[in-house]
């Protein structure tokens, strides 16, 4: 079993994350997966969960968001919405996700 970490092993530029979130109508952005555990490695991707403003559908901008986050964080990003996560482990992911941005 792997342990949970309390601080991210990489720098998260929260001001730039907030700018990106506002631009793409993201109301909540969270980290989940190995970045929150002690099995995060130098070649690990970063799992990010986003929730969009009600009524907003990102369409192809979803890929732009993923690419911009990859550039900001210096790693490959695997971008998901709660609906993308398998129902078999969605509740666990949502419970363990570490919120990085919430729209005021």
Automatic annotation (TrEMBL):
The residue ranges of the Polymerase nucleotidyl transferase domain are 19-98
MF terms from GO for this chain are: ATP binding; metal ion binding; nucleotidyltransferase activity
**What are the record keywords, sorted?**
ATP-binding, Magnesium, Metal-binding, Nucleotide-binding, Nucleotidyltransferase, Toxin-antitoxin system, Transferase
**Cofactors required:** Mg(2+)
Kindly give the CDD domains that the UniProt entry links to this protein. Answer: NT_KNTase_like
Check the record and name the Pfam families matching this protein.
NTP_transf_2
What family does this belong to?
Belongs to the MntA antitoxin family.
Report the protein name in the record.
Nucleotidyltransferase family protein
Q: Which organism is it from?
A: Iningainema tapete BLCC-T55
Highest classification ranks of the organism: Bacteria, Bacillati, Cyanobacteriota, Cyanophyceae, Nostocales
């Amino acid at each position: 079993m792997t342990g949970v970490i309390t601080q991210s092993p990489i720098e998260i530029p929260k001001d730039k994350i907030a700018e990106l979130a506002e631009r793409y109508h993201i109301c909540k952005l969270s980290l989940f997966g190995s970045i929150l555990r002690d099995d995060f490695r130098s070649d690990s991707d970063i799992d990010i969960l986003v929730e969009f403003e009600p009524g907003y559908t990102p369409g192809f901008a979803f890929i732009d968001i993923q690419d911009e986050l990859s550039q900001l964080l210096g790693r490959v990003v695997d971008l998901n919405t709660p609906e993308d996560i398998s129902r078999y482990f969605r509740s666990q992911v949502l419970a363990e996700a570490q919120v990085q941005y919430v729209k005021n």
